[in-house]
Structures are given as structure tokens and as C-alpha cells.
Amino acid sequence: MAELTVSTPKKHHLQDRCVLCGMVFCNVEITPSGRKIKTSVNMNKKLKITKQTVDDLHLVIDMDLTSTDATGICIKCNRLVKGVVEKLQIIKQTLNESIGYSRKLTVKRLLWSPSSSSTTQQPMKKVFSPKVQLWPKTKLKSASELQTMIISPYGKSGKVLQEPSGNTCTQLSTGDNAVRQMATTTEALLQFHRPILPAISEQPNIPNVITETSDKQTKARKSLFSPVSGQATDKKGPKVESFQDFKVHPVSQKEITIGVYYESGKRTVVIENKDHIKMCKVIFYQKNVEKGLMEILETTSKDQFAAYAAKIVKNECETICKRHSDFALTDKTYEGIMEFSWDHLYQDLLLGAPNTLRIVSSMVTSSIPMPVPSKEFHHALFAIGIILHGRNREATTLQYLNGMVLLHGGCTHQDMKRLAKLGVCVFPETVRNKLQSWQSNLDEKLLEVKEKWCKGDSMTYQLVGDNWDKNIVPSYRTSKNSTQSIHLFNVIGVIDRIVIKKEEGTPVRTVDSMTAVDFIPSEGDIDSLQKELTFLVARSVIQNIKQMEDLFGKIYPGHLEHIHSNEAGMKTSQYSLGLFDCDEKKTADVIRLLQNLTEKYVPKKDGEIVEEVFFGGDRLTDEKIQVAQQAMRNADSGLERLEGFISKIEDFHRLMNLAIHRLSYNTQSSRDRGTVHYYRNLLNARNVKGEVKNSYRAYKQLYYTLFDAICCVLFLKKFELDSCDSTIPVPQGIKDWEADQQLQWLNDKCGEIVKEIFPHDLFAELQNVLADPDHEENYWVNSIENDNFKCHFCNSRYKYVISLKMHEKTKHQVNMSAKVQTTNSLLRQTDELNDYLVSVFRLTALHQNLNSAVDMGDGYRVVRSAKFETPIYNRTNKVKYLIGSVHLTALVSGTLPAHQSKRLIANRFINISGGKNNNLSLDEFVEILNRDTKNATHGFQTKDSIVQHSKEFPHLVHAVKHFDAMCEVKKRKGFHKLPSYKEDVKKVLIDLLSINGLEVRPGRTLHCRKIVQKSSNPFSDCFVGLPVMIARHKPELPFRRLRNKNM
Question: Using an 8 Å Cβ cutoff, are 1035 and 649 in contact?
């Protein structure tokens, strides 16, 4: 059987080719079976050879062809041939025009003699020999053409022409075929060549004339002046003795003659165009030459002038839009977009495209350069950004930023696509892809710190979180389509501003040795409080009394110094980690969240925790983290027991829940002058309404207004003054005192006021009760022995206190509930208004002390304030925040190691803008971030979509804030007329002086009985149930700080 063989198809090209370059238009393939297949390859590039094409080929390369169906010419070759033909026609036309002008010029030279000094006709003298070939005239169109005309030194045969001096011009290199034929054809048209001028004898009567310098230097002609200095050159060329030797000799009123000397002779040209004459005069006088020429061209050749300007702009834009040009608009990295600024773009344009910037700026303003920054400045740069984006699709930095702003505002994708067509932004899918690629940037810095932390570095960080709730109202409500309540969790990471070195070998200690007295203010705490309130009262007096402001306004410090004052003004580094699918009310969700965060952010080494990470939040977050740890207490390792985090309560929620309003604010007290609600109506503070958590800042401003007014009243009463306009009798010559002496005088006066309002015996009752083991409040607490409750009458022991109560009630007839204490304050006749105002002043002073401590970054004052808050929380039944204060005091008093306790105290703040008095509490920053994030979710209507894009919202919030700062966008104030705080304080001050509210007048009563105080001491009767609460919630470990169920 014969073997089967497969032959390769042969390809045979037909004669259908381009007549010049040989490009194949069609070929034939022969298959093994002998079948021929004709394939068209480049038929779309083939042009038919017409009669005009045949004539052009004959003219250019002397090729004789006939038009057939099998032949053609490609598009590229046809374009080249047409270009050569056009150039040949231009050269031919120019030479023909020059012939006639040369004859006219010869006549003029022979009819006029420069030596004629009278009107008498002089005999004609020939300047040049009749054998000299005349230089043909070239019609000048602009100042750039005032230069010598260069004509090819080749003849028809291609031989080299000889210069008079014997120099030989380089011969044109000739190639084969088309190149040689084209050169020959071109030379055949050049019938006139550069004149061979003989040496000219000295002719003093022929004037010297100025001509414009040429950038192109040739052997046959050189420029008169150096392009730098404007002096005559030393090279071979025109002989010039001095600038004054150049003259312009008028031939007639409508024309001038210019000439130039060469070694081989002189050449003159007659200028007839009036615009060219102006240009020559501008060049001759040598004053603002460039400006003069530009002004002439601006009026005579606007189109050509604009064309050259467009060419300049085009070249600049090409340069700055090149790849890897490091231009501000082509940097699409995270830093390039999030740190983009108009100033950066402006500087790049000044360096790379100054003329483009000038032209665009002239469209929006007449003042060049533009004022920076201004509306015109932003508009011009924004227009340039859109224009360059149209030229280079990679110049999209500004478009990315605009797209993020549109997404943040809830712009639909279809509207963004419409704007993307105009170059305002990029397409929404492009922005989404960019945001997705930036997810690793959220915690990049934290992970770097974590790696160093694992290796023993002292740099640490902490996490802060809060619940993120949002209600989505449906556009069409049905029984199944109702309002959706979405519950997520927002987390941020904050790098500790103050580095605390770890003390090796410090174990976790318990607080068994701490008693209930350690959780309330001590004598040292009261002394510190008096110094701090002295500062606050002095600042209040200076700000609201004009005489004190003039004396002490410039010398009294605005910051109360503390141990970390130097670091309080440093900016902090905080990073939003995005939203997490976690409902903090559900323990299972919190456990899953902590497991994910433990895996990523808890520093570990060999499977063990290197050090715990603080996790801050409000009281609910603090409690739920402890509940999750309690649920996982039986796990094998510390990581599985979620002991990588230590929860803590933050300060903003402490301020909001101090509950001063529960003791002093009631809407039924509007009839009682001197009450908070009365002054709310007096000052027309209509934003003070509803719950405090919804109008916290409005309530705070109202109470602070009353506090400042009382400070001023007490200060005036110190000098026995009854009017705010009275002159305070300060010591004579106080202005001549040293600054320290002046401050000491003011602090002494304010310190006396504080000691009267906050004496040491203010907490005496509370301290005596908690320290007395025989007091009925301590009856059950003091019976604890080895975690059991011992009977006071026998040796019976019980696990739970309720069992002991039942035992003593049945066996020993003990009934503690029958004991009721009657205070002397209820039996005496008091001044209810004075007690009310003093009590409000004391409570507000504690609140302002904590608030100012947060502003100034004083962590020790913040933690110490928890001891003053504990009795208030107990009295107002704020149980959760009472527990939070007990935990905070215990953590810094022995539960934590020394270095962790210092970390907890020092790093409780965030500083965004810098400055010693510009600190925020950590949870307040999270609340602000929650608000901004909710604004960025306008375009999402489901929980799944929000969770899917949860890591994008921090970038959108950051981009919008950066855009606002870049464009100087200011937030709307919300007031038609901003209220004057000083005027409000003055109104309250005058009213308090008129009613003598701070003078004790027994028998004065209030109509609203709900705000009547038992005494002016808000800490009286705060001990009820306090020892039991402290003993029940005193933590032994930093984890699982839940109540003692045996209590």
C-alpha cells in the first residue's frame, strides 16, 4: 500500500503589486490537489493608476507607465509622490517670480547713486559687473523671513559649483532608482543659482543696512549679530565696524532698501510692504524688538500668529502628557490622588507648560498671573485638567477625585457616565475598581506597626469601635416592604501618640486590696480639682469681663500644663478599617468580629499573645466585648479566649451621660427665674430640646453659659460689686508688675472662690459612710470571707448574699430595710434657689473640667474625674456608666500592669489638626466618622450592597474631605446669624445680679418641685447602694469584667 504524503501548499504571487514599493495586493495558493485559491491581502490599500498618476510618476522619477487593471500604486507611495509634485511646483513658482523682480532691482541700482548729494543728475555708475548673476528676490511675509535666501549649489548635471574663494560645497549623495531620478528632476527646475560675486572695492557712498539674523548658519551667508549679545560676529561674514554704521536709506515714501555686506560683496533688497517696513524699523531702532514685532504680527497676521501660538501649546502639552513624565495629572496611585493639590498642578504647569497656563488663564481673568487661590484659579486649572484628559486618557487624577465626590453624594451610575463623556470624571466602574484595589491601604500602616510590635518595638496602637445603625425607608411601602434597620460595626485603628516602654516582669495584679473608698475622691484628688477649677474660673472671668480681659487677656495661659503637654499638640495617626457585618447586640456576631480582628491585629509570636490591644468604645461596646470573652472562657489558649483585647470606656459618652440635666432641667420650671429652662427661653435657645443625646452640644452650651455667668457673679461679689459695669478695684500699679505676679493675684482671687464652692468637706459624708464598716450600707459587703458571706451572729457561710440575708432575717430577726436615715437638711429652712444654682454650678464645673481635660489631652485628669462621676452616676441611676467608672478606676489602680496603665491614661485622644487644645476623645471621632460614612451610603438601599462596598466608604470620606480642603469648601453654619456667646453670658449675669440668686435668703422657694435640691451639695445621699455596686463590679482581671453573681 502506497504511503500517503502531504505536500505543503505553494504560494504564487501574481503581478498585482505596487509599481514603486512592490507591495503585494493579491496572491494565489495552490493546494496539494492542484486547486488554486486567490486571496486578497492589501486590496484596501490599492489605488488605481490614473492618467494624472502616470504624469506625476514621469515628472518625479521619469517612469513611463500605462494604466492597466493588473497594476496599481499603494496609498503611502501615492501620498509621497503627490508631496514631491507639490514641492516642485512651489519651487518653480518662486523662481519664476524672482526672475521678474531681479530685473526690476537691477534697474533701480543703476538709476540711483548713494553718493548723490544734490538734485543735479549724476551719471549712472554700475555697481556690479554685468557678468554677475543677479540674486533673485524672495517676497518677505514675516519678520522670520528677513534672512538670506538659500539656493541649491547644484547645477542640472549635479556637478559641484565653485565658490569665489575656492570653497567646495558638499555634493548631494545620490541613491539608486527613485532617489537619483527625483534629485535630477528637481535640479532641472533650478535654473538660477547662488550668485558668484566678485570682491567689491571700497565704496564709501554705499550705505550699510541692518538685516535680521538667521538661525541657520551657512558658508554662503552668516548672520550679522551673535544671538546672545547682538554684537558683530568674528566669523567670516559681513564686515561690521559698529552698530551706528547701519542705516536704513529711504528710496521713497512707500519703500525702503536694506542691504548687508559680505566678503564677496553687498546685497540690497527693496522692501515695499508697509507692514514689513514697520518691522525693519523696529529692528533698526533696537528697542523692544520682540514686543514690537509681535504687536505688528498681532494686527496683520492674526491667523498665522494664532497658529504659531497653537503650535507652542501643542508642543508643551505633548511634553507634559508623555508617559513617565511625573506630571500631577498622570499619578493615579493612592498618594497621587489623595494628596493631589491645585498648587502641585500649578507648579507642574509653570515648569512644563507655562504658555498653556497663560493662555487658559487669560480666558478667565485679566490679571496675569492669577491670584492664588481664587475661584478663577480653580476654574482655569480644572479646565486644563479636562483638556489634558482629552489628549491623554492616562491623565485622570482629577477625574478620579471628581468621581469619588460624585459617588459620595449618591450620584447614579448613569449620570456619572454622562459626565464621563464630557471628561468631568471617569466611569463609575473605573472608580469602583480603583477603590477595590485600595482596600489594603486601610490597615497598611497598622500592620507595619504590628510587625515591629511582635519583634519587641515599643510603638503600639489601639482599636476603637462603635455600632453603625441606619434605617432605610422604602420608596413604596407595603406589608412586606417595610423600613429596614441595618446594624453594622465601624472600627478604626489609632497609633499611640505617646510611646510607653514595656516594663518586663510586671504581672497582672488583682484589686483585692482596694476598698470602696479608693473609688471616690481623696483629699489629694480634691486639691488637684481645686487647682484645675481655679484655672477654669480665671479663664471665664477674663473672657467675659472687659476690664479683666484688658489686664490679663494676653498673659494668662490658654493651656493648663500637665505631664504630657508637649505631646498634646502632636497630630495622631488614625485609620478607618471600614464597616463590619456585626450587630453588637448579638454575642455571636461580636465573637466572630473579635476572632477576625484577633487574627489580623493582635501581635502574636509562636502562637502566643505578645501584648494585649486596647479596644475602646461606649459602655455598650465595652460590655459586649466582656460578654464575648466570658462566653469563650473555656477555650484552650488566650487567643481562643479572645484575651488579645482589653476593652475600655471612652470619654465622649461619659460626658453625654453625666446626667446633670436629670437633677436640674425641667420644662415646667420656666416660671422660676434662675433655672436652666428659664434661661433657655431667655436666650431663645430653641435647639435645646428633646433628649440630651440628640442635642448634646446645645445643652452643653446652655449650661456653660450659666457657669460662666455664675463665675462672673462670684468674682464681682468678691469685691462687693452689684453691677457688671462696675470697675473692679485691682491693686494700683498692677500693670507694672511682673507677669507671674499678676497671674498669682488673679489665681489667688479665683482660688478663694473655688475653695468656697468646693471645700474639702464636700465629700466628707460620702467618705465617712464608705469607710465605716459598721454603717448599714457596708453591712453585707464587709461579711465577705474567702468568696463566701459569713453570718454576723453565727458561723454560717453562704455562697450568695441573698442566702445570708434570708438566714439573718429568719434566724436572727435582722431587717435592714427598716432602717431609714433622716438628714438634717430636710428639717431646716433653706433657700431653694441658692441651693439650686450652687448645685448646678458644681455639677457643671465637673463636666467642664472633664471636657477641658479632653481638649488639652490631659489623660490623668480624665481618669481622675471618674472618681467624681461615680457618686453622680449612682444618684442619677446611670448604672452602666457607674460600672464603667468603677472599671476605669480599677484598671489604672492595679488591675493592669504599670506600663499598660500608663498607655491607657496617656493615649485616650485623637488630634486631627494639631494644637495643644484641639484634642478629641476616641469615641467622638468614631461618631463623626459614622456620620460621614452614612452620608456616603445614600446610593445603597440594601444591607448586602453596603457590606459589599464597606471598605470603600473610608476612601470616599477621605477623598471628599481632601477635596473640601483643596477647594476651600466651608461647611454651612446652620444659622442665619451666629449667636454671640459673650452677649448671652452678659444677659444671664445681669439677671442673676438682679435676683441676687447667689445670696442666701432662707425661705425662697421654687414653683417646680421636681428640681428642688435637698441641699447645695450634689454629693449628699449618693452613698445609698454605692458600696454594694463597687464590691459587685470591682474587676479582678482586665478580661471578663462582669459582675460578681454572688453579690
Answer: no
Crossing angle, helix 859-875 and helix 1026-1033, to 10 degrees?
130
Contact present, 61 and 178 (Cβ < 8 Å): yes
Q: Can you tell me the distance from the alpha carbon of 915 to that of 571, in angstroms, rounded to the nearest whole number? A: 8
Residue 790 CA: distances (Å) to CA of 152, 540, 736, 806: 125, 54, 70, 13
Provide the Cα torsion 898, 904, 906, 911; round to 10°: 160
Asked if 683 and 824 touch (Cβ cutoff 8 Å), the reply is no
d(CA 986, CA 998): 16
CA angle 609, 612, 615 (to 5 degrees): 140
Q: Could you tell me the three cell numbers for 216?
A: 541657520
Q: Is the peptide bond before 114 cis (omega within 30 degrees of 0)?
A: no
* Contact between residue 841 and residue 997 where contact means Cβ atoms under 8 Å apart: no
Tell me how far apart the alpha carbons of residues 862 and 869 are, in angstroms, rounded to a whole number. Answer: 11
| Segment 261-282, tens digit of pLDDT | 777 878 888 888 888 888 888 8
Cα-based angle 906, 908, 909 (whole degrees, multiple of 5): 110
Three-state DSSP string of 442-457: CCHHHHHHHHHHHCCC
- Is the bond leading into 1038 cis (omega within 30 degrees of zero)? no
Residue 583 grid cell: 450587630
Are the CB atoms for 397 and 336 separated by under 8 Å?
A: yes
Q: Which of 512-521, 558-567, 974-983 has the lowest mean pLDDT?
A: 974-983
What pLDDT digit, counting tens, does each position of 195-247 carry?
Answer: 333 333 334 443 333 343 333 333 334 333 333 334 444 444 444 333 334 44
CA dist 707 and 688 (Å) reads 16
Cα 415 from Cα 943, distance rounded (Å): 23
In the Cβ-directed half-sphere of 17, how many Cα atoms lie within 13 Å? 10
Which region, left, alpha or beta, applies to residue 597 given φ > 0 means left and ψ of -120 to 50 means alpha? Answer: alpha
Residue 307, number of CB atoms within 10 A of its CB: 10
* pLDDT band of 79, cuts 50, 70, 90: confident
